[in-house]
Structure formats: C-alpha cells, structure tokens
C-alpha cells in the first residue's frame, strides 16, 4: 500500500522530471535557433566578402576575394600604367554591347555621372580587352550578381591601372547597416574593398542586392540582357554552392562601346 506521504513524493518527483524535460527542450530549441541564425549570417557575410576581395568586388588584385562582404581581402595589384586620357564626350550616353555565349547583354552608361568609368571602359573595349573573357563569378545568396571583366578569368586580373569611384550617392541614403539597394539591372564596378581601386572587373545585378555604397554604379541593363542573366542565375553555380563559377558558362565573345 502506497502511503499518502509516498504518493506526494512521487507526484513531486514526476513534476520535477517534467519541469526538467521542458527546460531541456527549451534549451535545445534555443541552441537550434542560434545555429540557424548563425549559419544564415555566415552565408551572407561569406557571400559579400567574396565579392569585394575575390569576386564581385575585386578587380586588380593578386589574391582573390568580395564586399565588404566576400572573400578574404586582397591588395590591389600595383599600377603598371596610367589610366587612359579622357577621350569621350562627358555629356553623352554610351552603350556597352556584350556578345556572350549566354545571349546579348547591353547596358547604357551615362558619361555625365561616371566620366572616368565610361572613358576607361570605352578605351578598353576599343582595344578588344573584354573579347573572349569569362564572367567568372556568380552569387546566388545575400547578393545576386554575375561578375565579369577579368582577362584572367580568376578574379585577380585587371588593366594595370585603377580609376576613381564615382556616383556613389546615387542609390540613396544607407540604412542602419550602412547598405543601399543595388537594383536588378544595375551594372557596377568591382573593387578590392579600398576606395578608388576599380579596374576592369564589373558586376551585373540580376536581383535587388543590399551592399555598401562603395561600388560605382555606372550602367543599366536592357530587358533582354536582364532576362539572359536571370537564366544564367537559375542554373546556379558549377559546384552547387552560393558563390562560384556559373554552371552555364558565360564568355564575352565581343565587348564594344558606342556613343548613343
């Protein structure tokens, strides 16, 4: 026969065990949420860093890297030649026509807003600098861009000179995180994460992307070009990751700049 005192102790013990079980489950859920949040933050940070240093945002570096948020940083490659002398009409608009293996991608550049950038791209294009070069990097999380303009196809090449940042305030006031939205269809300069470190690498935004206002926005992609980019993005990266070479190879067969 179980006495009333024994019964009370049994009930108390069962209540204690239930409380401990609930507390353990709460701790497990808290750890799980923290792990999920940590993983999500890591993905965004890794993607962004990859852009600045090794990809979308680097141009003339001899190590690889991306944003203020993508790969470990790299130093700009030393200048080996001066930037081209100004030879464009600063009041005109120019079209950069990229004939690629993934379709034609055209974008308009406004020399009044980005004269140094437009002048550099026209000078390079006139020399065939972009012909037969690969768009070496696609990002599919955090930021959504295809990066091109590296003659080496590695994220480390450039023209041997750098140009000044321009038009950085055109996308509005940064939010509390210090970011602005680079809208889908934007073309912007990649860099090494340092001011005025742009060279020949640029990135094509296929979906609105939050970034620090550190990358010169200098072009707007036409509808057909944006559709071609979206198809490349839909296929993802070659290794199935969120940052890497596109699964659908994109080679610029010919890059030409003409005045409108």
Q: Any chance you could write out the topology, listing elements then pairs?
A:
Layout: H1 4-54, E1 93-100, E2 103-110, H2 115-126, E3 133-134, E4 137-141, E5 143-148, E6 180-182, E7 186-189, E8 202-205, E9 209-211, E10 217-221, H3 223-235, E11 243-244, E12 251-259
Antiparallel strand pairs: 1-2, 1-12, 2-10, 3-12, 4-5, 4-11, 5-8, 6-9, 7-8, 7-10
Keyphrases for this structure?
260 residues; 23% strand; two-stranded antiparallel ribbon; alpha+beta
Count of the domains: 1
- The share of residues in extended strands comes to 15-25%
Mean pLDDT: 83
CATH class: Mainly Beta
Shape designation: elongated
Q: So, the CATH homologous superfamily?
A: Cyclophilin-like
CATH architecture: Beta Barrel
Number of helices: 3
What's the helical proportion of residues?
25-40%
For the biggest sheet, the summary is: 10 strands, antiparallel
Radius of gyration: 25 Å
Distance between the termini: 100 Å
The ordered string of helix (H) and strand (E) elements is HEEHEEEEEEEEHEE
Regarding quaternary structure, how should these chains be classified? single chain
Q: Largest sheet, order of strands side by side? A: 3-12-1-2-10-7-8-5-4-11
